[in-house]
């Protein structure tokens, strides 16, 4: 029985040592896995950070492009408004000159008509004077002959 007991003792010790080694290996394996996971997480975090920074730069560039496009469109609109204002000014000045000329022509036409009317009145007055003188002479003769 001593041999059996001794065999069992050796077997138990061997198993205990094997279990200890397995526990150490399991602990080391767990530590190794934790390190691997930590490294993988760090790599992925770095990738995400890089991708995020790239996207932020893209968004900044797009925002700058949009702002520049807006500024360009605003400048184009300002130029177009200035050109239209210049055209309108030129057109308005031409119309004002036309109106001045028309007013001057109308004033001249009115003056000409007034002059014509004055002459016509003077002629009629002269005719009436002559007729009146003729009638007065006729009446004088008619009175004298009675």
TrEMBL record:
Basic and acidic residues bias (residue ranges):
112-125
Q: Which domain of life is it from?
A: Bacteria
Record bears the keyword Secreted: no
Q: Which SUPFAM superfamilies does the protein's record reference?
A: Apolipoprotein A-I
- Cite the entry's keywords alphabetically: Signal
Region of interest called Disordered, as start-end residue ranges on this chain: 103-125
Q: Where is the signal peptide?
A: 1-18
Annotated protein name in UniProt: Late embryogenesis abundant protein
Q: Where does this protein come from, organism-wise?
A: Mannheimia haemolytica (Pasteurella haemolytica)
């Amino acid at each position: 029985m001593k041999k059996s007991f001794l065999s069992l003792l050796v077997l138990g010790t061997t198993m205990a040592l094997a279990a200890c080694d397995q526990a150490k290996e399991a602990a080391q394996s767990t530590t190794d896995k934790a390190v691997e996971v930590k490294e993988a997480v760090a790599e992925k975090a770095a990738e995400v950070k890089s991708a995020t920074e790239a996207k932020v730069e893209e968004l900044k560039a797009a925002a700058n492009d949009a702002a520049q496009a807006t500024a360009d469109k605003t400048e184009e609109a300002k130029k177009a408004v200035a050109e239209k204002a210049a055209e309108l000014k030129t057109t308005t000045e031409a119309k004002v000159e036309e109106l001045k000329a028309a007013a001057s022509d109308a004033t001249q036409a009115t003056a000409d008509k007034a002059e014509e009317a004055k002459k016509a009145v003077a002629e009629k007055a002269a005719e009436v004077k002559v007729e009146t003188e003729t009638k007065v002479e006729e009446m004088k003769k008619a009175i004298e002959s009675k």
